[in-house]
Amino acid sequence: MILDPVLDLFRGKAVTIPPLDGAFRPNTRLDDTPSATPLAEADNLAASPDGLMASSGNTLYRIEAGKAPAPLRSFDAPITAAAASPLGELAVALETGRLHIGGHEEQAGPDLRCVTALAYAPDGTLWLANGSAERAPSQWSEDLLRHGASGSVWKRPAGAGGFERVAQGLAFPYGLLPVDGGIVLSESWRHRLVRVAGAERAVLLDKLPGYPARLAPAPGGGAWLSLFAPRNRLIEFVLQEQHYRADMLEQVPAPYWIAPALSSGRSFMEPLQCGGIKTMGVHKPWSPSRSYGLVVRLDAKMQPLFSLHSRANGNRHGVCSAVEQGGRLWVASKGGDCVLDIDLTELAREAR
Amino acid sequence: MEAPMSDALAADVIVRLEAVTKAYRGVPAVSKVDFELRRGEIHALLGENGAGKSTLTKMIAGVVEPTSGRIFHKGKEAHFASPNDALGAGIAMVFQETSLVPSMTVAQNLYLGSEKFLNRLRGIYISAQQFLQSLNFPVDPAAMVETLGAAKRQMVEIARAVHHNAEVIIFDEPTATLTPEEKRHFFALVRRLKAAGTSIVFISHALEEALMLSDRITVLRDGELVASGPVANFDRDSIIAAMVGRTLSGELYQHRDETALRKPGRKMLSVQDVSMSKIVRNNSFSIFDGQIMGVFGLIGSGRTETFKIVSGIYKRDFLRGGAIELDGEPVRYYVPREAVKDGIVYISEDRKSEGFFETMSISKNLFGGLLAGGKEKSAIISMKEMQALSADWTSRLNIRAINDNARVVELSGGNQQKVVIGKGLVQQPRLVIFDEPTRGVDVGAIAEIHQTIRKLADDGLAVVVISSYLPEIMNLSDRILVCRQGRIVEEFSPAEATEEKIMYAAVH
């Protein structure tokens, strides 16, 4: 109705969560994958000419099919992002805000304390996503609950000395995909993918059913997008209730906030329990959940083609990164403490 | 066919019909049918709509008198001039359309006609409560009948028949409005009645129920008896073959694998967190072109209400009522006409009260659909155009009637349903929502309606089918959504879905 925008001022704009259907139709592909390498809090996967790497805590590991993760290098703080250039240069960001690029340690800048993603373009330009100007990467749930929108994206052309800011005012940018003339980034708290090219910004994919995390290119065009947590009606409601949220942040320990999580169901003190979740001992796959596992294959126009899920009753949740290499899809499940190895030929046949 | 009866068996026959015929305006609805009901048996009476089942049972119950032939009750010839006469003889009938008084309470309805001289309301409520509990019917005896849903009304109707201590009870489609749980109670009740020596005539379109529950089966076709015998002589295929003269079972309800399913087209409609009071709660789903989306849910799950919101019949909550996007643009319909203009058509589950004008002709009803859709530009109605439209859709949907001017009330249930569908389709919709499209429709018409629904999806339209009948949902749909407590809780592919999985999602 023509008056709806005016009425919304008084009645509150309806915050809606898009349904999980179409390309997002739930399945159990992540949970059904037999091949999983245990790795505590597996976070950022990076494909390099030398192989696949995964970050876990303070350490970077080499990942190979059928083998235990081999430690490559350890740092003095948790790794928050990692990337490898086509020539094999390694860039690693730490929780302290320090960067290690090509073996050299440096402080990226006073504003860059929450590096959530790093990505090399084919020309060697290093792109950097700073999730928040106010909080550290581990404080991401507080950033969401405080409606943080101080994120920014930076780039450093090959051979240049420092980073230059490309975009700011972003609501927790968490994934980067360099494209011709610009960058595609995932904006977690706004549940969307945005293309930034110079001063222009264009929303490529909106209304995602979860909080998007990292992007990785897919051979033949398109990308893999991981979503680290599902959107949830209870959380959306809490996000609208300012006083409740303030009290919760002040009085309740962070693990028990009504907020998205990378894993859930591990403590009896967590919110969201009882009959809505389990009936007669069976965890209902369609029950509301704070955590979920979701990886989406996007086409060249960044539109979803199909997706892989670990549902409420699964445990491969909190997927922060998915990378295709050697005909296989590697998925880092931070909530499930493992790296999954999925045969893409089988997947392509199913997706048809 | 049955063997000749022995004397002992003959003594056990409580009602016998001998060559009975009932003709309306010279056209026989039932023609020279022999029928017998034995003491303590459950006798299923099957046939397509218009086969004469209801007419036959109405003759037994004294609602109509036969044109010719004889009725024997306990071996003696009987003439029931009214249902009261039949009730006096111990024959009660539970009608398809309930015959309760809406402005009276459940208890008052139960005791209607058998009140004592000094009537004590409290006493009636107490004994009604005990009686309903003994039947396992969760109905409040003090509730006004008009406030009850269809299923509970049906329960009261059944309870009333049982309450009269009838020796013969005739049930006309008793389970059409009951949930699976309520059906189980009903079947247990029927078995208890049988054990107590009551004879039951059971009319149903659900063949599985007939096969599961009854001792003997009689099949009618076009008013004539085509088969009768013990249930062991029948299976699903042979019943359908007897009913329609050909085997339809394989066509109607067959399992499909992934390759047989239609792929989703463009996302046409997106429903996000739509809420309406406590009936529809944060319901979200999408509808795609070129696909049939089946929606299953128990009665009260909010599935009908959700789609009535989509089609503008009901309004979603004003505050935080969610959003509906058509082709990516938000829409909020306040009257159905706006939805119809946007190409959304809802075909009601209650065709008798919402679907058609029963005293108007087929052609006027179809043309009414055109007018409602705003497709008729001229202010003056052309009879020629109306007749052409009617002839076109009558042949497309195979509506069988004497002529286009036949009143809809005179048609069988299947043909009435086809008129309602035609009335919607003349509006050239993009999204067609069928709510219980085959409820109370015979097997032959079910096949034709299913064919129509499939063709719409093949032509690229978005189609929604809401049904309580799981085989129908599994056979028709390209995706199955399960609704529970006002929300879509789960989606299944028909290739992977089983009745158990769907029911688990619908119940838990």
Short description:
Chain A is mainly beta and 352 residues long. Chain A is built from 6 helices and 26 strands. Chain B has helices at 7-11, 53-60, 83-88, 106-111, 121-134, 150-163, 180-195, 207-213, 236-244, 249-252, 303-310, 336-341, 351-355, 362-372, 383-396, 413-425, 443-458, 470-476, 499-507, and strands spanning 13-24, 27-38, 42-47, 68-73, 76-77, 91-94, 168-172, 199-203, 216-221, 224-230, 267-276, 280-288, 292-297, 323-326, 329-331, 344-347, 431-435, 462-466, 479-484, 487-492.
Major beta sheet, strand line-up of chain B: 6-7-8-3-9-10
Distance between the termini of chain B: 46 Å
**Largest beta-sheet details of chain B:** 6 strands, mixed
Distance between the termini of chain A: 39 Å
User: Biggest sheet of chain A, open or closed, and with what strands and sense?
Assistant: 4 strands, antiparallel
Overall geometry of chain B comes to globular
Give the uncertain stretches of chain B in residue-range form. 1-5
Q: Roughly how much helix do the residues of chain A carry, as a percent range?
A: 10-25%
Give a description of the structure.
- The complex is a heterodimer of chains A (352) and B (508).
- Chain A has 352 residues and is mainly β.
- Chain A has helices at residues 4-11, 29-32, 140-145, 233-240, 242-251, 344-351; strands at 36-38, 42-48, 51-56, 59-63, 70-74, 79-84, 90-94, 98-101, 104-107, 115-120, 126-130, 151-156, 164-170, 173-179, 182-187, 192-197, 200-205, 210-217, 223-230, 278-279, 282-283, 293-298, 304-310, 319-325, 328-333, 338-343.
- In chain A, 12% of the residues lie in helices and 41% in strands.
- Chain A has a four-stranded antiparallel β-sheet. A four-stranded antiparallel β-sheet of chain A has the order 2-3-4-5, with no helix packed on it. A four-stranded antiparallel β-sheet of chain A has the order 6-7-8-9, with no helix packed on it.
- Chain A is globular.
- By secondary structure, chain B is α/β, with parallel strands linked by helices.
- Helices cover 35% and strands 24% of the residues of chain B.
- Chain B is built from 19 helices and 20 strands.
- Chain B has helices at residues 7-11, 53-60, 83-88, 106-111, 121-134, 150-163, 180-195, 207-213, 236-244, 249-252, 303-310, 336-341, 351-355, 362-372, 383-396, 413-425, 443-458, 470-476, 499-507; strands spanning 13-24, 27-38, 42-47, 68-73, 76-77, 91-94, 168-172, 199-203, 216-221, 224-230, 267-276, 280-288, 292-297, 323-326, 329-331, 344-347, 431-435, 462-466, 479-484, 487-492.
- Chain B has a six-stranded mixed β-sheet, with helices on both faces. In chain B, strands 16-17-18-13-19-20 form a six-stranded mixed β-sheet, with helices on both faces. In chain B, strands 2-1-4-5 form a four-stranded antiparallel β-sheet.
- Chain B is globular, with a radius of gyration of 24 Å.
- The relative contact order of chain B is 0.11.
- Mean pLDDT of chain B is 84; it is low at 1-5.
- The interface between A and B is medium-sized, with 22 and 27 residues.
